[in-house]
Amino acid sequence: MVYELYYWPGIQGRGEFVRLALEEGGAKYIDIALKPENRGGGVPAMNKFLEGPRVPHPPFAPPFLKVGKQLIGQTSNILLYLGGPLKLAPRDEAGKLWVHQLQLTVADLVVEAHDTHHPIAAGLYYKDQKAAAKRRAEDFREHRIPKFFNYFEKVLTRNRTAGPWLVGRRVTYADLSLAQVVAGIRYAFPKASTKALRKHPRLMKLHDAVFERPRIKRYAESGRRLAFNNDDLFRNYPELDG
After folding, report:
1. In terms of CATH, what superfamily is 2-83?
2. Which class is domain 93-213?
3. Among 9, 29, 235, 238, which lies 20 to 30 A Cα-Cα from 145?
4. Are 232 and 11 in contact, with CB atoms under 8 Å apart?
């Protein structure tokens, strides 16, 4: 099976959570965002499914994954699907739901991180909502980062099996996604994240363990993993870091 991943070119965004799972799982996939438009890639290829009149189950937005003739949208839904084939989720139903629940909580944190620089409307430029962004970012730094980090640290502490993972003894897609969020928040809020992570050593250990995994490390060093930038979900505006 060769998967096709569709996402916006030039940014990691929500597509990166899927990429990390595909890389860790050793899957064969085509990253359509990296293909030139004149060779069936880029935004036109994506719009064919988003806007095409003959697509029976169109995705609302990218990322989406093409598996044969099937289209699967929404990051958490894609990862729920991939968890089994890529062996990145437990086999039992309760374990699958627990990992999915953790992934949905990660998704909540991603939304809150994004909304620090776009608190009023996604359609407005950052410069048009800077005053509101400063207020939102202060609350995110002082209250929301600690709340989410405390939760994930608690989950890590209560997993009493050997290893740094959220669930059981093996890495899951939720571990990969959580590490990605920690990396993104470290980029966007270097001062606030340094302070917060001092109090959450298990979370920092998980982040390091994920990015030291051979396949993830090889991917990160390949040039295919895009750098964080200020057109992305996680943005570094020093005035928002306190």
Report:
1. Glutaredoxin (3.40.30.10)
2. mainly alpha
3. 9
4. yes
